[in-house]
């Protein structure tokens, strides 16, 4: 019996795939990249035609030895890493390390981890796509050159530990430029006049906004103008001069791409981009569903295509007909146009099996998985449904020669809106229906109000709007958006206030230095052009080393000039309200490996430093001292006593403020776990729990 080895990136993916293959298959995980450029040096030989020097990643030696042993014992090796540039490069490195012939058909890819897709892929292996590999090599080498050449200048001229990167530098610049726009913005005064009117027959009230005189729209610039109009209309008859009603079709949004999924997850379920991608990865690789087993729930989550497989469209139509009725399914399938320069290798993000509704599998998912899966499922199903039909009414109302306008909408057929409505970055006005109005009808004035307003500056970027801008400008690829935002936050170039991204002084100083000395690196058009060149490598229309060569020599001149001309820049530390208990100075915020911490500005005379203390707002159930919000090394939030290590109280669950256990008076905890949320008592000897007794598990 022949033995076959399949290599994937992660154990969870391996577990799912193993289920779909027979006993003759062994499935192992490479745990991501196994070979890469070294961390301690640039790893690119400029003098030898930019040849990269790859090494086995530290700590992966034992795993590589195991894979080599397994590969030698196997009659056939399949490399089943993710179906993108990064996945192709991992397979290429594995092929070299395991001494496989890369020209032999050893590469298998699937857009979804389902039994049919996996078995089909195993039957149709191909050779490694060198163009895909080269596109990844070009990006990796380009980013390494930029980082290793600019970062030392930033260390010397600005601050130790800083880094520069092609995409992260442009993203930071966009945020800094927006902040400059906001600061330079001069508000302009304007006024509105809103009349609240009542239709005599129905007694229903509605609001109409002042438009102007005749057909001309009038901008009300100040209180004097507003008062003049107000005095002319306050005692006038408000007469309906025209009513126009029409039916408007509203189409559903396309199924998700990586970018739109990140944007919508931010708007609707308050997920940061990184969390969205991590959660989507688990849904793609496989979840153990009660009564079914391990199933890959969504298609590959790194894509910029809105294309849907025909079989998925048939499945969606059948589901819509069965669950919503035939009048909700269009006669012909919907097709959506992908954005310019989109790669169409993968489908849009969709559920692999539309019959696995969010409600049906909820108990098998974590809360985060459920929220994101529900979003993906609803978006996909809605995208295959009929247009909604909205009755739109526009009404002009005349008062002493002045025109007020009112508009209303009414849903005549909900169509796709029965399942899903796309979110927006700005607050939407609630759509309401107008009462039945007829021309020349006189309305009753219930109230009229003048209001002063000021024009608002452009909004700061949120993660959602930044991802949208990066995609629109062609900066980065679907796989780079989340890590880019994570990096600029971790480096201290940007901070997050609720959802807004705000540049720090460090981010602004660094961006200014790059704008003055490395114009191309932070130029939106240049970065987008470089992205197009990487795409041309992937399509086989360009040689990757030629692109590197064309970029490098002008860049090297800029580096040389910057090393000689840039002066040292001093950035003042942000002062806290915490007094150093050792010397009395006000402590300052510093950025370290694990984020911000407090340090004494008197260094090196005073070396006092400590973590930033965030109180949870509750007392320790063991000793009565304060409970603090803390972070583990992996970045996970937990709660612990301030008197640690004397007091060992610690919990991953969220303490409940201003409420004690009704049975024993101790601290209550909201359980962070799969399934329904529940609250339990922190006292191990108390059995209080919302909904009943503590389970024995």
The level of helicity is 25-40%
Radius of gyration (CA) equals 30 Å
Which sheet architecture does the biggest sheet show? 6 strands, antiparallel, barrel
Mean pLDDT: 90
Report strand order across the widest sheet.
8-9-15-14-11-16
| Helix/strand structural class | alpha+beta
Number of helices: 17
Q: Per the principal axes of the C-alpha atoms, what is the gross shape? A: globular
Number of strands: 29
How much strand content do the residues show? Answer: 15-25%
Distance between the termini: 43 Å
Low-confidence stretches: 692-697
Give a description of the structure:
By secondary structure, the chain is an alpha+beta fold. Helix content is 34%, strand content 23%. A six-stranded antiparallel β-barrel has the order 8-9-15-14-11-16. Strands 19-20-21-22 form a four-stranded antiparallel β-sheet, with no helix packed on it. A four-stranded antiparallel β-sheet has the order 23-24-25-26, with no helix packed on it. A hairpin with a 2-residue loop joins strand 9 and strand 10. Helix 8 crosses helix 12. The radius of gyration is 30 Å and the shape is globular. The relative contact order is 0.11. The C terminus is likely disordered.
SSE topology:
Layout: E1 4-8, H1 11-20, E2 25-29, E3 35-36, E4 44-45, E5 51-52, E6 55-56, H2 61-73, E7 76-79, H3 85-97, H4 115-123, H5 130-157, H6 166-184, E8 189-198, E9 205-213, E10 216-217, H7 223-233, E11 238-250, H8 258-269, H9 273-285, E12 287-289, E13 293-295, H10 310-324, H11 358-361, H12 367-383, E14 388-399, E15 402-413, E16 442-454, H13 463-473, H14 481-490, E17 494-497, E18 500-503, H15 505-517, H16 524-538, H17 544-565, E19 575-579, E20 586-592, E21 595-599, E22 609-611, E23 614-619, E24 626-631, E25 637-641, E26 650-651, E27 654-660, E28 667-670, E29 679-681
Helix pairs in contact: 3-5, 5-16, 5-17, 6-14, 6-15, 8-12, 8-13, 9-12
